[in-house]
């Protein structure tokens, strides 16, 4: 594939002149493009989506994508969705959603899970399929429904029920039932805690903020910034990836409902949510439990052009990283950023739009400090120098997970679409997407604007 | 803003210059806003101890703080990661010549801490690392305590383990803080309490989570954070934004209500005293005095309590028991050091041959220290049992919440169970724990030497086979050494290391390093039949058999030995060790030492072995052992064996006391002979080996300390008396006679 359209036009020329590289296209490697990406509005859990199932949300996102792109269903070679808390009835939620959305039953679908970077994993899996020539057109997306989570019977109860199934005689059954104790009925909730350390993520975030000496005020200010920018973006109609969703039995949902710019005074009143009574992470400076789904149409560039599409962006280099799940649980972006820049041959100054996943204000600010520390780079990352922290004026300009919401499995696509849409709107060339994830993992990807 | 800050710092600068105080070395303080931050950091030491110098500096600093109107509250914190204050300075007590002098030390402490307690400026103790003894007494005198929730942070009153009591108000304050039952538990067992447990008990008010690395190393930043949090609380306390009253749980409320009823209190004192008497058998004076001091404080008020506490503290510090226990403490510190230097190569890969009780035990204490360990056995069944033992050991810790199940799994991944020698080419050390038979040991040594790299150390875990005999078939005898572990390996602290004249210093350094990593207290001895520990035990066991043959029943013998201070009765000990093992040892050492090791007849053990009475492991020995049955009963099948081997007792040496001394003096005499012959390098190692490996009464401090404290002449007199009745086995050794002849001669100067 060769560079078809030539070099970006006037709007981008200023930015382009200073770049380390004119483009990230590589010889003999297929260019992969995002044709379009959409998401249903992200809602605080327990609101309008609460009666639905995860595949309902995923299906809505798929239908939104179909509507937006008018892509013929049978062109889609493969469908991949990310999700975290799995509904056991639809453990391959990608398949259930695809069937429900009317995709061909001949189109395979699978579901991936990698905590908060599940959708990123769905996208990069798709990139891999296209790059290796397995597919030309992939739909990648993600879904999360925190309004309903699988709550199980206790292990003892499950064991008794399973044994009862196998019991052949009435005597055997009675003897099993006689072993029943009331505590068998205490349910097992899905843990929001790391399995390896038993620590909840908020708790870890509070420790991380403390480790990097990030103050409560800094965190509140950052959260307020996120909400204010999100509100502005929403009001100005910049969140063009949102597609309306007519919820059965309810009104059509048209916009995110978690954006609530408050005041520092109001925020200061909140008590710490995890490390009590003196911690710094509160409900106001954390991302909230969210229901939502996203979907994205990814194609080989030549296929997209052949079909007459005008792609939005290229998906370029990406990396996955992982580190200590106890003390560096949320430092994924710090590790991933210099690595992906190096892979792409870019520097921080080449990036026009940063889109980082905001799990917690404290996490974002700790990452900034870590990225800006030579000591940390040398002692923990095996690097000679720091990569530097992103300039705030290019960072999450349309809000982030703190304000827009964070349906675990769906956020990755939102980040990429925000980067792509911002590059188009603001006139930049390179976007950098980064996110942290449970398990002490992280991801970063370079998004390159498609020439106008 | 900037200007005023600069002026502030200038003012401080001039102020500190005008004060002509001597430079402080243990304590310094700075002021953050209106909070004084007092930092404790004893120079040239890993730990802070309440020495005279530290105390006087502390008093000085506190007086300055109280006098300064700009300061409204204070935070006490240590600059040493891993240690708040580890306790009082033992040497300070040891240097006191009389009980009165010690009482005075106690009173000074009481006064200092009372001033803290009554401080109108709130004082917050910010605790990271060990907070023990006097350190805890200081902390509980403060108005508020914040502790780091990590494994290094433990609180406790270990004074009882040194034969003394918390002498700086601890017996008075602790019961008020955590309730009488919990206070008794802490002070009578000396157990360490982790921070999270301390929070639940009401011993600390807040916990601070340890931090990961940020812009500084983790430890450094965690202490800084602890300080920041403590300063916030100090401010809020002085602003009266938070109350000092703690919300008590229902159980706590009920307990404190019950404790307000005099009758209930009396019952509790009685119960605790009974329990203590039963457990200490009257051999340890400290626990009863602790109960007494607590009781006095509660029943007669604080003043009487303080007087009682300081007096008893003085009395206890002068007791032989306390001197013995403190000696053991010093010995233990000594035996936790590697005096052979740093080995050339760190042992990262360990291989253990034989997955029996010992082999698996050694594996367990290795894998949990992060050593990659191969456990090899000859059969799959044996290997399965051994691996299960390791898993169970770790899983028991999960049940006690000392480990998480995830940690258990990742520790267990350090273990590889196998039947062949795969991977031995990477082994830095091989410890064999195969059957105690010279031919078997020779065979595995040759097999191992064929597959291991040149630097690999070969250690033999044996309780009696001479190491030089094992090494005789080695191509590299300088790499061969003995490591005598004690069963159960994960519980017994002692490791006896045996060197031959050919063992290289680096080999010794290497096994000591591994032993220390495994958490062991280590004595290094020269090779010889029975080394040190087994050799001391053997003559005593020989006497045990004689006493049994003389018609004393095993239960009586057990009670005689435990009432002398041994943790396990002599007959039970044979059952625990294994009758077959005891027989082996008795025969081997009997041959090596001849007449001196005579006493009872080995025939007794032989007959027991032939009947299958191997002790606990076979379910029958002198006693019958049943799963789940607590009180073991005598094995009546032994009556016939004992009757057939009966010998007449000698009436002038078979009083209860004589029986006890016949056992103990043979033990002590043999121990001293080991020093005389150079098997032992130091008396301290002899005492540690005897107490930690063989259960020699800790209240006596070990055979050498015992001779020092009670007089060599008395022991020689006893030995001579029994020598007259039984001959050579009781002949005192030359070194002991020398000590008896010149009373100024001491094993410990």
Automatic annotation (TrEMBL), chain A:
Its pathway is:
Lipid metabolism; fatty acid beta-oxidation
- Domain Thiolase C-terminal: residue ranges: 309-448
Report the domain of life of the source organism.
Eukaryota
Cellular localisation: Mitochondrion
Reaction(s) catalysed (UniProt annotation) = butanoyl-CoA + acetyl-CoA = 3-oxohexanoyl-CoA + CoA; dodecanoyl-CoA + acetyl-CoA = 3-oxotetradecanoyl-CoA + CoA; decanoyl-CoA + acetyl-CoA = 3-oxododecanoyl-CoA + CoA; hexanoyl-CoA + acetyl-CoA = 3-oxooctanoyl-CoA + CoA
User: Taking the first listed entry, what is the main subcellular location of this protein, grouped into a coarse class?
Assistant: mitochondrion
Q: What is its EC number?
A: 2.3.1.155, 2.3.1.16
Matching entries from CDD domains are given as:
thiolase (cd00751)
Ranges for domain Thiolase N-terminal come to: 32-302
The record's section on Pfam families has: Thiolase_C, Thiolase_N
At the top of the EC hierarchy, this enzyme's class is: transferase
Family statement drawn from the similarity comment of this UniProt entry = Belongs to the thiolase-like superfamily. Thiolase family.
Q: What role is this protein assigned? A: Mitochondrial trifunctional enzyme catalyzes the last three of the four reactions of the mitochondrial beta-oxidation pathway. The mitochondrial beta-oxidation pathway is the major energy-producing process in tissues and is performed through four consecutive reactions breaking down fatty acids into acetyl-CoA. Among the enzymes involved in this pathway, the trifunctional enzyme exhibits specificity for long-chain fatty acids.
Please identify the protein, giving its name as recorded: Trifunctional enzyme subunit beta, mitochondrial
Provide the species name: Felis catus
Source species taxonomy: Eukaryota, Metazoa, Chordata, Craniata, Vertebrata
UniProtKB/TrEMBL annotation, chain B:
For whether the record's keyword set contains Metal-binding, the answer is no
Protein's organism: Felis catus (Cat)
Q: What is this protein called?
A: enoyl-CoA hydratase
| PROSITE patterns membership | 3HCDH, ENOYL_COA_HYDRATASE
Q: Which gene encodes it?
A: HADHA
What metabolic or biological pathway is this protein involved in? Answer: Lipid metabolism; fatty acid beta-oxidation
Q: Would you identify the family this protein belongs to, as annotated? A: Belongs to the enoyl-CoA hydratase/isomerase family.
Residues covered by the 3-hydroxyacyl-CoA dehydrogenase C-terminal domain: 530-625, 662-738
Q: What class of enzyme is it?
A: lyase
Q: Does the keyword Oxidoreductase apply?
A: yes
Q: What is the lineage of its organism?
A: Eukaryota, Metazoa, Chordata, Craniata, Vertebrata
Q: What's one Pfam family here? A: 3HCDH
């Amino acid at each position: 594939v060769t560079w078809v359209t030539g070099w970006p036009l006037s709007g981008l020329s200023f930015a382009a002149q200073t770049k380390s590289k004119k483009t990230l296209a590589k010889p003999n490697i297929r260019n992969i493009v995002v044709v379009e990406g959409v998401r249903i509005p992200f809602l605080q859990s327990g609101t309008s989506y609460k009666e639905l199932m995860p595949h309902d949300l995923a299906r809505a996102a798929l239908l939104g994508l179909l509507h937006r792109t008018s892509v013929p269903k049978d062109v889609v070679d493969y469908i991949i969705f990310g999700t975290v808390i799995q509904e056991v009835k639809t453990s391959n939620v990608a398949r259930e959603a695809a069937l429900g959305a009317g995709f061909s039953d001949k189109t395979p679908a699978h579901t991936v899970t990698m905590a908060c970077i599940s959708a990123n994993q769905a996208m990069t899996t798709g990139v891999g399929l296209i790059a290796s020539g397995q597919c030309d057109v992939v739909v990648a997306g993600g879904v999360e429904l925190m309004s309903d989570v699988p709550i199980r019977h206790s292990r003892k109860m499950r064991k008794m029920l399973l044994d009862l199934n196998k019991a052949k005689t009435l005597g055997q059954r009675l003897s099993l039932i006689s072993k029943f104790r009331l505590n068998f009925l205490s349910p097992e909730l899905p843990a929001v805690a790391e399995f390896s350390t038993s620590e909840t993520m908020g708790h870890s975030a509070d420790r991380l903020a403390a480790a990097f000496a990030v103050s409560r005020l800094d965190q509140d200010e950052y959260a307020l910034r996120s909400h204010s920018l999100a509100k502005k973006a929403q009001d100005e109609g910049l969140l063009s990836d949102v597609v309306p969703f007519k919820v059965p039995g309810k009104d059509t949902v048209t916009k995110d409902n978690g954006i609530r710019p408050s005041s520092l005074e109001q925020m200061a009143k909140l008590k710490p949510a995890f490390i009590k009574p003196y911690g710094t992470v509160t409900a106001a400076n954390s991302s909230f439990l969210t229901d939502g789904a996203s979907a994205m149409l990814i194609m080989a560039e030549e296929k997209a052009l052949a079909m007459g599409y005008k792609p939005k962006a290229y998906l370029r280099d990406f990396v996955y990283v992982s580190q200590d799940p106890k003390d560096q649980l949320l430092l994924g972006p710090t590790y991933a950023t210099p690595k992906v820049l190096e892979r792409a041959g870019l520097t921080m100054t080449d990036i026009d739009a940063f889109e980082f996943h905001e799990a917690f204000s404290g996490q974002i600010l700790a990452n900034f400090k870590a990225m800006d520390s030579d000591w940390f780079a040398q002692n923990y990352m095996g690097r000679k120098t720091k990569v530097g922290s992103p300039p705030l004026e290019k960072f999450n300009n349309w809000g982030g997970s703190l304000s827009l919401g964070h349906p675990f499995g769906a956020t990755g696509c939102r980040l990429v679409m925000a980067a792509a849409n911002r590059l188009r709107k603001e006139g930049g060339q390179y976007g950098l997407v980064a996110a942290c994830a449970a398990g002490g993992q992280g991801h970063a990807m370079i998004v390159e604007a498609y020439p106008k | 803003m900037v200007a005023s800050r600069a002026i502030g710092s200038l003012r401080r600068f001039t102020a500190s210059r005008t004060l002509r105080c001597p430079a402080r070395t243990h304590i310094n303080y700075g002021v953050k806003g209106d909070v004084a931050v007092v930092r404790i950091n004893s120079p040239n030491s890993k730990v802070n101890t309440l020495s005279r110098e530290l105390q006087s500096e502390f008093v000085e600093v506190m007086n300055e703080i109280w006098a300064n109107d700009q300061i409204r509250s204070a935070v006490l914190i240590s600059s040493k990661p891993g240690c708040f204050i580890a306790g009082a300075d033992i040497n300070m007590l040891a240097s006191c010549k009389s009980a009165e002098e010690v009482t005075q030390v106690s009173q000074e402490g009481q006064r200092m801490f009372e001033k803290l307690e009554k401080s109108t400026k709130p004082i917050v103790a910010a605790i990271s690392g060990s907070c023990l003894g006097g350190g805890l007494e200081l902390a509980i005198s403060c108005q508020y305590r914040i502790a780091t929730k990590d494994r290094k942070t433990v609180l406790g009153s270990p004074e009882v383990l040194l034969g003394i009591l918390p002498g700086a108000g601890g017996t008075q304050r602790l019961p008020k803080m955590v309730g009488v039952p919990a206070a008794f538990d802490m002070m009578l067992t000396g157990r360490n309490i982790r921070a999270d447990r301390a929070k639940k008990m009401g011993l600390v008010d807040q916990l601070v989570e340890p931090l990961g690395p940020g812009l500084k190393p983790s430890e450094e930043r965690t202490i800084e954070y602890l300080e920041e949090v403590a300063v916030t609380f100090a401010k809020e306390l002085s602003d009266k934004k938070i109350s000092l009253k703690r919300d008590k749980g229902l159980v706590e409320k009920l307990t404190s209500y019950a404790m307000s009823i005099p009758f209930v209190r009396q019952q509790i004192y009685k119960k605790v005293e009974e329990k203590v008497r039963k457990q200490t058998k009257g051999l340890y004076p400290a626990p009863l005095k602790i109960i007494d001091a607590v009781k006095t404080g509660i029943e007669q008020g604080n003043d009487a309590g303080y007087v009682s506490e300081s007096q008893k503290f003085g009395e206890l510090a002068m007791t032989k028991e306390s001197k013995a226990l403190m000696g053991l403490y010093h010995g233990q510190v000594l035996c936790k050091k590697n005096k052979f230097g740093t080995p050339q190569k760190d042992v990262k890969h360990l291989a253990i041959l034989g997955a029996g009780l010992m082999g698996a035990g050694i594996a367990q204490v290795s894998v949990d220290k992060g050593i990659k360990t191969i456990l090899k056995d000859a059969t799959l069944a044996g290997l399965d049992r051994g691996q299960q033992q390791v898993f169970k050991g770790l899983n028991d810790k999960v049940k006690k919440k000392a480990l998480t199940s995830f940690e258990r799994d990742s520790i267990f991944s350090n273990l590889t169970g196998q039947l062949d020698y795969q991977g031995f080419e990477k082994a830095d050390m091989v410890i064999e724990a195969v059957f105690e038979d010279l031919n078997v040991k020779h065979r595995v040594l040759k097999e191992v030497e064929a597959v291991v790299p040149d630097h690999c150390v070969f250690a033999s875990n044996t309780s009696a086979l001479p190491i030089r005999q094992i090494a005789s078939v080695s191509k590299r005898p300088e790499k061969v050494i003995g490591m005598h572990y004690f069963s159960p390996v994960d519980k017994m602290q002692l490791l006896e290391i045996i060197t031959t004249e050919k063992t290289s210093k680096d080999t010794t350094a290497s096994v000591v390093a591994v032993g220390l990593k495994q958490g062991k207290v280590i004595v290094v001895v020269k090779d010889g039949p029975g080394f040190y520990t087994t050799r001391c035990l053997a003559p005593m066991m020989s006497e045990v058999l004689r006493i049994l043959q003389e018609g004393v029943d095993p239960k009586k013998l057990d009670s005689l030995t435990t009432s002398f201070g041994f943790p396990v009765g002599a007959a039970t000990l044979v059952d625990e060790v294994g009758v077959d093992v005891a027989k082996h040892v008795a025969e081997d050492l009997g041959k090596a030492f001849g007449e001196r090791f005579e006493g009872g007849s080995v025939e007794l053990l032989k007959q027991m072995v032939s009947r299958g009475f191997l002790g606990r492991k076979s379910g029958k020995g002198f006693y019958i052992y049943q799963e789940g049955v607590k009180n073991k009963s005598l094995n009546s099948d032994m009556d016939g064996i004992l009757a057939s081997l009966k010998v007449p007792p000698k009436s002038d040496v078979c009083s209860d006391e004589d029986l006890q001394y016949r056992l103990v003096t043979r033990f002590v005499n043999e121990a001293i002979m080991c020093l005389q012959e150079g098997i032992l390098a130091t008396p301290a190692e002899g005492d540690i080996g005897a107490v930690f490996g063989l259960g020699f009464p800790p209240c006596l401090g070990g055979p050498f300390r015992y001779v020092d404290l009670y007089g060599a002449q008395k022991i020689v007199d006893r030995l001579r008396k029994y020598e007259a009745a039984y001959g050579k086995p009781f002949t005192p050794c030359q070194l002991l006679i020398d000590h008896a002849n010149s009373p100024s001669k001491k094993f410990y100067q």
